[in-house]
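Quick start: what a row looks like.
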Amino acid sequence: MGLRFRPVEHAFYDMFSESAAHLVTGAGLLAEMFTVGADHESVAQRMRDAEHAADETTHDIVKKVNSTFITPFDREDIYALASGLDDVMDMMDEVVDMVLLYEVKTMPEALSGQVELIHRCAEITAEAMPRLRSMSELSEYWIEINRLENAGDKNHRRILADLFSGEYKAMEVLKLKDITETLESAIDAFERVANTVEQIAVKES
């Protein structure tokens, strides 16, 4: 009698797409937080709700890994991808919380450029996740994320130079530097997600 194996569980693809969709929601809320006249309390609450929903999806992925016999690709890569997507959401939530708690009234215009990059990273990540199923046309995704990350690095340096130009009070510099660094970390986290996707694609090719 031949051996019978359980079929590969394909629900992971839908879960990763759901996780990336949370990032688009989070990036939209982040952008709203940087809009003039935004209700910071309202945005922060909605971001907390979005972050909680993203956490639930991450927990579902982990539970699925632990209960599935045959996964579509290496378990370690599934954990890494789930964790990477979760990290991005956490960092966006952290920025929103900082803006609220620090009571920052005036933002350097260049910070909006970083937020726009994050929003674009979220959109193309959400577009890429469904393609994990076929492992097709993914190279365009990680190449574009790398380009956006490089643009973020350049923006980051310009923002820091502006902060230390003497235009801002010392306390404002400290607050804005925290926000600037966390925005940069969020963009870097998107690149780590793209790197994980690239590793998965190379293994599966």
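That is the whole record. The first helix runs from residue 11 to 33. The CA atoms of residues 22 and 54 lie 6 Å apart.
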